[in-house]
Amino acid sequence: MNYGFVKVAAASPHVRVGDCKFNTERIEGQIAIADGKGVQIIVFPELSITGYTCGDLFGQQLLLEEAEMGLIQILNNTRQLDIISIIGMPIVVDSTLVNAAVVIQKGKVLGAVAKTYLPNYKEFYEQRWFTSSTQLTRNNVRLCGQIIPIGANLLFETSSTTFGIEICEDLWATIPPSSALALQGAEIIFNMSADNEGIGKHNYVCSLISQQSARCISGYVFASCGFGESTTDVVFAGNGIIYENGTQLAHSERFSIKEQLTISEIDIERIRAERRVNTTYAANRGNLGRLDPIRIYTEFVNKRELTLTRPINPHPFIPQGAELNERCEEVFSIQVSALAQRLKHTEAKTAVIGISGGLDSTLALLVCVKTYDKLGLSRKDILGITMPGFGTTDRTYLNAIELMKSLGISMREISIKEACIQHFKDINHDINVHDVTYENSQARERTQILMDIANQTRGMVIGTGDLSELALGWATYNGDHMSMYGINSSIPKTLVRHLVQWVAENEIDNTSQKTLLDIVDTPISPELIPADENGEINQRTEDLVGPYELHDFFLYYVLRFGFRPSKIFFLATTAFKGSYDDETIKKWLQTFFRRFFTQQFKRSCLPDGPKVGSISISPRGDWRMPSDASPASWLKECEKL
Description:
Number of strands: 20
Strand order of the largest sheet: 6-7-5-4-3-2-1-14
Shape: elongated
Largest sheet: 8 strands, mixed
Structural class: alpha/beta
Helix content: 25-40%
Distance between the termini: 12 Å
Radius of gyration: 31 Å
């Protein structure tokens, strides 16, 4: 199985201007290399058989005939290969010349896409030699002894994907041809280009490709001329660039004097999932899908065993490098703005929050503090309640106390032990049996205390539970599951830790920083079971429910793209190679799907809370699922892994 991935390549071969024989041999060589690497579709630069910078040589009969002979040679020498190749060359159509992308496979010419927008300004003079696709009076042409379709509205359908082609300047148009091609079903756009270099131009080109691939919800493969093109007036850097829905997957080395193949995999299932849920895409297709495309069906491309070259981030909610700080600042600002609006609207006099010394309650408290500062309110109106129970350790207790003191909020300590002991007597539960009743009773007692104090003070209970806990149902129904505003409800556990650390390093005083950094290093635990003989945490969440980094990875691909278990497993084994073996990943993937389905009833009645990223499980917004949906199909597929 290829899991919906299509392996593509942007080629940058050596070229000699006007030497079709040399260029043909270089193209053949790169096709063979790409085929050996499992590439299914390869695109070459603009006018790659002749060279782009031929100038008035395009008017020479010999050059045009040599170009066609070169294509015949490529057809003959690659006929045994499955790979689809997109090659640039001039084609004569009714005594006019078009700048074309010729698509070939297994010795056949499938079609030719003619360039629509011919630049004729500054250093470009293409209208001197070529005719636009809009001026063609026929939709077929004889090439290499075959009658083939030609035009700008060709779609090529493989067994795995549908793709379209535009040529260089077409991308720079106000409405590029790729926009219409995508609306007609093209999932990958290939662009053969002769994009010359200039100061700052490369970043602009990448921005164009990124935006167009995002706007079209498509893959975009860009191959531009490189070493060997004439440098009489301009320089070409040999750019090979591959994007998927706005994200760069691969790029070549700029200004290399070596031949290059830029290879990556476009996730077609991901593109289709994005388009299915994006109703604007369907509406736009209905309103503006004005092309009547010519559909060309290719032969089957062998699906070899897939080896991914594109990176798979094991922590999809956490960006890398400087972007992480930007992400944390933005998420924290969204939380603060959301809570400020809710407090103003409800005219709450206090914000009541249970402080455990763990990550989630710490983040919620930090949001409260910054919100009160923003509103110009006294931090003393934030009521931090620490409620030690049977499993509370000195480390979390002291961190909770120190943090509340250093932040200058009001603080109360209310032990839940006596109330829980009485409750166990009332329901005839043996206190020595540390089962779910033992644990949940403590969680519900804490919630009752918070709710009643909020009533006393005309306040609002601020929820602390995060997205990962809610997805797994790792919350006590009507206990920590419930609040009056769930400020962390769409933030995954893996991001919570980074948020707290970011606040510690950027937004807080030195005394609070020390406590926050220790909280970041504290093992995740509900602390409902008594500590061990050394007073250390005896109940580690990830030992019981599984590593949160795995569950967040699963959650991202389930909710964001609707991937099936086998594909998520494949991606996880790639992303976490060297960290978890296949059996471990399979075990926790089964746990994820079992809990995700069976715990939906908890998510069906969640309190309000702000959406901060691309994923939310609010029953009023992003995720509406029946509480009695069956996980059988998902678990059955997990068993087959």
